[in-house]
Design a protein that fits this description.
Length: 392
C-alpha cells in the first residue's frame, strides 16, 4: 500500500492513477491525437533545456509568489480546464477546486466538466475561480453560460480557440469513451478492477456534464447530449466572436490555444488580458511544435499588450522555472493535477502542487535566485533553449 509520504514526483502519481482510474478515462487524460508526436514532444522538449547552476549565493528568504492577471498566486501556476475531470475521481472538479483554493492558485472549470459551475461555487464558499468557454453554435446557451459564470463569482473567463473541430484521439475511439461508461463486457471487466473508483461513483449523483444537461433545450439525458455536442462546436469561430464574448463577459479574458506569432499579434490587439500558448496537450494538431518551443516567438509577438502563459508538458517545478525564464508569466497544469486526483483525490491534487512548488523553489535557488519575479533566460545554458522562430 503506497501512501502520500512516499510520493516524490508527478510520475509516482501517474503510475498510481493508471492503476486506479478506469482505462477509458485514464486514456482520455493521458493521450494525444494521431501519432501522439506533439503530446510526447511537449514533455520531452522541456528536458532539452539546461539550467545554469550557481554557487555561493545567499539562498535565504526564497519566494515563488507572483501574480497572474493581477491575482496573487502562491506560484506561477494555475489548474487548467480539463474535460471529464469528475470521471478521474468522483466529484473531481470540486476536489481539485478545493485543493487549489487551499494552496493559493487559480482553478479553471471546463465547460465539459462533470461538476457544474454552481457545484464549484457552493463547495468552495464562492471563492473566485476561472471558467473556460467553448464557442458553440447555440449562442443563447453561451449567453446563459456566461451569465451563470458571473453568478458563480468567476473572476476570469478562459476562451478556448483551438477546438472548432475535434482532433482524432485513437484511444478514445478504441475505448468507446462515454460518460458514464456503457455496460459492455469489456468495461465491466475493467471496472471490476477499480473498486475505489466505483465506490466513489456510487456515492455521487454527478456522472454527467453538469454545465450542459438540464441547461440546454432538448438535452435531458446522455443519449441526447452526445448528438448535441457533436454538432455544437462552431467551425466558423473568428475574432468577431472573441469581441462579442469579451463584451458579453465584461471581465478579465484569457485566450487559450494559440501557437502562431501572427495569432499572438491578433490576440494582443483583441483587448484580452492574457493568452495561453497551447497545443491542447497534443490532442488537436499532431505535428505542431511543443508549446515550450513556440513560447519565445509568442512572447516576442505579444509584446507588452497582454500576459503570456503556456501549458503542455509541465510535469515539474523545473518546467515551470524554464517557462518563466523564457517569458511566460505563468503556466497551466492539466495532466499533473489529474494524475494526483486519480491517485488520491483532493489529497493527491494537493500533493502534486506541493511537489511542483518544492521543485520550483529548490531549482530557482540553485540557479542563483530567491524570487521568482527576478528569473529570466540568464538562468538557462545558451544553445539549449528555444529562440523565436524566424519570420517567414
Amino acid at each position: 500500500m503506497v501512501n502520500l509520504s512516499q510520493i516524490t514526483c508527478i510520475e509516482d502519481l501517474r503510475v498510481i492513477a493508471r492503476r486506479r482510474v478506469p482505462r477509458m478515462f485514464y486514456d482520455y487524460a493521458d493521450s494525444g491525437s494521431y501519432t501522439e508526436g506533439t503530446y510526447r514532444a511537449n514533455e520531452q522538449d522541456f528536458q532539452k533545456i539546461k539550467l545554469r547552476q550557481r554557487v555561493a549565493v545567499n539562498m535565504e528568504g526564497r519566494s515563488t509568489r507572483t501574480t497572474m492577471i493581477g491575482q496573487d498566486v502562491a506560484m506561477p501556476v494555475a489548474i487548467a480546464p480539463t474535460g471529464l475531470t469528475g470521471m478521474q475521481h468522483a466529484d473531481g472538479e470540486i476536489l481539485a477546486a478545493k485543493a487549489a483554493k487551499e494552496f493559493g492558485i487559480p482553478f479553471t472549470l471546463s465547460t465539459m466538466s462533470i461538476c457544474s459551475l454552481e457545484d464549484i461555487a457552493e463547495h468552495t464558499d464562492r471563492h473566485p475561480f476561472w471558467f473556460q468557454l467553448y464557442v458553440m453554435r447555440d449562442k443563447a446557451f453561451m449567453e446563459r453560460l456566461i451569465d451563470r459564470a458571473k453568478a458563480a463569482n468567476c473572476s476570469a473567463l478562459q476562451l478556448t480557440l483551438d477546438l472548432q473541430i475535434l482532433g482524432q484521439r485513437h484511444k478514445d475511439i478504441k475505448n468507446g469513451l462515454s460518460t458514464p461508461p456503457k455496460p459492455t463486457l469489456k468495461n465491466l471487466i475493467n471496472l471490476a478492477t477499480k473498486p475505489r473508483w466505483c465506490l466513489g461513483m456510487l456515492g455521487t449523483k454527478r456522472r454527467s456534464f453538469g454545465n450542459i444537461v438540464g441547461h440546454v433545450d432538448g438535452v435531458e439525458d446522455m443519449s441526447s447530449l452526445s448528438s448535441w455536442t457533436a454538432d455544437q462546436f462552431d467551425p466558423t469561430l473568428n475574432w468577431n466572436d472573441v469581441e462579442w464574448i469579451k463584451q458579453r463577459w465584461g471581465g478579465k479574458l484569457i485566450l487559450k490555444g494559440l501557437m502562431d506569432a501572427e495569432d499572438a499579434r491578433l490576440a494582443a490587439q483583441s483587448g484580452a488580458d492574457a493568452m495561453v500558448v497551447s497545443n491542447h496537450g497534443g490532442r488537436q494538431l499532431d505535428g505542431a511544435p511543443a508549446s515550450i518551443d513556440a513560447l519565445p516567438s509568442m512572447v516576442e509577438a505579444a509584446g507588452e499588450h497582454l500576459e503570456v502563459w503556456m501549458d503542455g508538458g509541465v510535469r515539474s517545478g523545473q518546467d515551470v522555472l524554464k517557462a518563466r525564464a523564457l517569458g511566460a508569466q505563468g503556466v497551466l497544469i492539466g495532466r499533473s493535477f489529474l494524475y494526483g486526483l486519480g491517485a488520491f483525490g483532493q489529497a493527491g491534487v494537493s500533493k502534486a502542487l506541493q511537489i511542483i512548488q518544492k521543485e520550483l523553489d529548490t531549482s530557482m535557488a540553485f540557479c542563483g535566485h530567491t524570487n521568482i519575479n527576478t528569473v529570466d533566460k540568464n538562468i538557462l545554458v545558451p544553445g539549449t533553449y528555444p529562440t523565436p522562430f524566424e519570420a517567414r
